[in-house]
Amino acid sequence: MACGLVGAAGTVRLMTSISGPAYGTYLDFASPLSQPRADRIVRYLAATRPATVLDIGCGWGELLLQILAASPEASGVGVDTDQPDVERGRSNALERGLADRVTFIEGPGADHSTPADVVMCIGASHAYGDIPTALRALKPLVNPGGRLLFAEGFWEHPPSDAELGRLWPDASAAEYSDLAGLVAQTVDAGYQPLWIESVSRDEWDQFESGHLADQAHWLLEHGDTEDAPKVRQRYEAHRTRWLTGTRELLGFAYLTLGIPAER
Question: Which domain holds residue 209?
Answer without folding.
Answer: 35-258
